[in-house]
Design brief:
588 residues; Jelly Rolls; 9-stranded antiparallel β-sheet; binds 2-acetamido-2-deoxy-beta-D-glucopyranose
């Protein structure tokens, strides 16, 4: 079993290595590449989009127009409160740029250039969005052009009011109505949807965090491709989160947020105490049971093996260690201070080739008579009353908000971020109340972009295929370069397995005929995981790098209210649990 997987991995390695060399040789001519790119560009002509129905749009920016951008987007010059002067400034760098790779001709995006700096930028909406009878749709694109080690790319929909009047002062405490978008640190991948809810009873505002979806969101941070994030919040208090137009998370504003929008109607009575005589023991020792007559509690657990005999050749009168007669008293030895000098002990050479030296003692064996302390068997407790619970009383803080959709009016939108990776590209942001408008906007931007990227990837293969058709001799080369080494490796590996290994294999195969857990499941799973998960190592390195950056942790404390940490633990596979833990604690 093992042999085959090993062989397979080896041969795949050789094949992939060889074929990438092959492709490199093939691609090198730069003007060829440029020609292909030009051809693809003309196949995907890009024109800065205009919304289908401007009356349904609250903001729509494609970031292609530098003048418009400079007029509408305001970089924050705020200072964070409560931290030292040099890291308090919002001095992150924003710019309009074409994407580093695979861009549409003429398309630009908003790029967060700097890392490890507070960066905030915001724009006023064309008109405020009031939560009424129409859905809220927020959509934008993110490309982590340099990947993401630790940091966010989420958007904040700023609450209308005095605190957001001056966008130059936009900072982490500026009140927002909704925060939405990707965020990552180490292995903690998130897609936030947080809304701030006003307690109708006393006006206190509280963050409500959306439940975690089942699916993991990892690729968007690592694949360097544009990804589309869409949030839909409906007047019927349902929501939907889409990634690349596929539903990623959905549910109800009532049921899927922590803490819940509406507090429980009843709570435990804090003044209720467990009565003294409340018996919570489900089982008790049988009071009627008596210790059997022949139960000897004093019998030792182990006894001397009476049947053992001294092994042949044992030298009972030889000491195991003897003084080293060759040793000399050190010249600086002072008997008055150091005491009488004695030569060090060494192993008795007379004992090296015999079964043992010194007094022989028979070994101990388990005592068949051993019973240990007698305990009465357990029976059902006749007085068992179940687990005690305090009685419920009406919750004094109870309220019922029947329409949490009616959130605080939004009048601006912005990014307020801290990132450990630079060059995050944002593009094609739109806030609308019409899904058609959002879809059309994406069709002219994101969809076109991804189509072009697929086409480009395809055309490299196509070129290879065309060339091969025109030069059939290429097949001989493929066979020589790919098939022969792979076949020899397979042959060598598997022929090498001697009969003992084969026996083990059959043994394992037999064991695997049952679905039940067997000890070698772990081994096989480990092998499989190593094959499947080439990213595992860099991930760990990332985490170590992350641990060396304590400053950003402070920054992220504001999200420490959520309980993802626990969930993270649950997802640890058995293998990870056994391995020595490299991970350092992320939050104190
Ligand atoms: C408002 O009520 C909530 C409980 O529902 C409580 O936690 C909060 O402290 C209250 N705020 C004020 C200002 O009384």
């Amino acid at each position: 079993m093992k042999c085959y997987s090993l062989c397979l991995v080896l041969s795949l390695l050789v094949i992939s290595n060889v074929s990438s060399q092959e492709a490199d040789e093939f691609e090198v001519e730069p003007d060829e590449v440029a020609k292909v790119e030009e051809a693809v560009d003309s196949e995907y002509p890009y024109i800065s989009p205009t919304p289908l129905d401007p009356s349904r749009v609250y903001i729509a920016d494609h970031f292609d127009d530098v003048e418009k951008y400079q007029k509408l987007w305001i970089k924050s010059l705020a200072k964070k409160e409560g931290i030292s002067e040099e890291i308090a400034k919002y001095d992150g760098v924003w710019d309009l740029e074409a994407p580093q790779r695979d861009g549409l001709f003429g398309d630009k995006g908003l790029v967060l250039k700097s890392k490890a700096k507070h960066a905030a930028i915001a724009s006023r909406l064309i008109k405020p969005f009031t939560f009424n009878t129409k859905p809220l749709i927020v959509q934008y694109e993110v490309t982590f052009q340099d990947g993401q080690e630790c940091g966010g790319a989420y958007i904040k929909l700023l609450s209308d009011g005095a605190d957001t009047k001056n966008l130059i002062q936009f900072q982490d405490r500026s009140p927002y109505t909704i925060m939405f978008g990707p965020d990552k640190c180490g292995t903690d991948h998130k897609l936030h949807f947080i809304f701030r809810h006003k307690n109708p009873k006393n006006g206190t505002v509280e963050e409500k965090h959306c439940k975690k979806p089942k699916e993991r969101l990892e690729e968007v941070f690592t694949d360097h491709l544009p990804h589309l994030f869409t949030l839909v919040v409906n007047p019927d208090n349902t929501y939907e989160v889409l990634v690349d137009k596929k539903v990623f998370n959905s549910g109800s504003l009532f049921d899927d947020f922590t803490p819940p929008v509406n507090p429980p109607m009843e709570i435990d009575d804090p003044s209720d105490k467990k009565p003294e005589d409340w018996d919570e023991r489900e089982k008790i020792p049988d009071p009627e049971a008596v210790k059997p007559e022949d139960w000897d509690e004093d019998a030792p657990a182990q006894i001397v093996d009476e049947n053992a005999v001294m092994p042949d050749g044992w030298l009972e009168y030889e000491a195991t260690h003897i003084p080293d007669l060759k040793a000399l008293k050190p010249a600086d030895w002072d008997s008055d201070i150091d005491g009488e000098w004695e030569p060090p002990l060494i192993d008795n050479p007379a004992c090296t080739d015999v079964s043992g030296c010194g007094k022989w003692e028979p070994p101990l064996i388990n005592n068949p008579e051993f019973k240990g302390k007698w305990k009465a068997p357990l029976i059902d407790n006749p007085n068992y009353k179940g687990k005690w619970r305090p009685k419920m009383i009406p919750n004094p803080d109870y309220y019922e908000d029947k329409n949490p959709f009616k959130m605080h009016t939004i009048s601006a939108v912005g990014f307020e971020l801290w990132s450990m990776s630079e060059n995050i590209l944002f593009d094609n942001i739109i806030i609308t109340d019409s899904m058609d408008v959002a879809d059309q906007w994406a069709a002219e931007t994101y969809v076109l972009k991804r189509a072009k990227i697929s086409k480009e990837a395809e055309s490299v293969f196509e070129k290879l295929a065309t060339y091969t058709n025109e030069h059939p001799m290429m097949w001989l080369l493929y066979i020589a370069v790919l098939v022969i080494p792979a076949a020899s490796i397979l042959y060598l590996c598997c022929k090498g397995g001697n009969s003992k290994e084969k026996e083990e294999e059959t043994l394992q195969d037999n064991k695997k005929k049952t679905d039940a857990y067997t000890a070698d499941d772990d081994v096989i799973r480990e092998v499989e995981e190593e094959e499947e998960d080439p990213e595992a190592k860099p991930e760990e390195d990332e985490e170590e790098a992350e641990a060396e950056e304590p400053s950003e942790e402070d920054d992220r404390e504001k999200f420490s209210g959520d309980d993802d940490e626990e969930e993270e633990e649950e997802q640890v596979t058995p293998k990870e649990k056994e391995a020595p833990r490299k991970r350092k604690p992320r939050k104190e």
